[in-house]
Amino acid sequence: xxxxxxxxxxxxxxxxxxxxxxxxxxxxxxxxxxxxxxxxxxxxxxxxxxxxxxxxxxxxxxxxxxxxxxxxxxxxxxxxxxxxxxxxxxxxxxxxxxxxxxxxxxxxxxxxxxxxxxxxxxxxxxxxxxxxxxxxxxxxxxxxxxxxxxxxxxxxxxxxxxxxxxxxxxxxxxxxxxxxxxxxxxxxxxxxxxxxxxxxxxxxxxxx
Length: 208
Prior knowledge:
Largest sheet: 6 strands, mixed
Shape: elongated
Strand content: 25-35%
Number of strands: 13
CATH architecture of the largest domain: Sandwich
């Protein structure tokens, strides 16, 4: 009887030990597998996003600053290129707040692209059709000083929506040639004002 009890106890201990060993093996296997998958994902993301870059041209020259003299308005040809060997997503905006008397926007014109929304736009890989977009950006400066506006570009994976940085602002569409004051200034430049010794006439043409 004692022998049977000892054999039974040994069998239970043996089973318990085997179960513990099995659980340890399975736990180690799954932990290693999860660790490996996590590292592979981290490496894949870092390899892809770490190499993504952008190229911004202003009037054909690389840069990101629009400078406009005092009391003037200027249009810039801005080109956004994808220099990467894969499709990527880009966002385009200006940085910081505008001073009073300063405005910026884009001109809608046939053959010219419209800036992307806040989530960005995909551009094809380098040296293929659709790897670049061209915009007409207009800056008006009615102040007495030269001003500069810095442009920003965000880039990411083509299947991920982008977000604007805290100080980033999308360009608004310019739907007219300017305010009444700007039109009057343009008239002055074009000698549309008539002045004699007795009175002054200001002629403003309405464009339909």
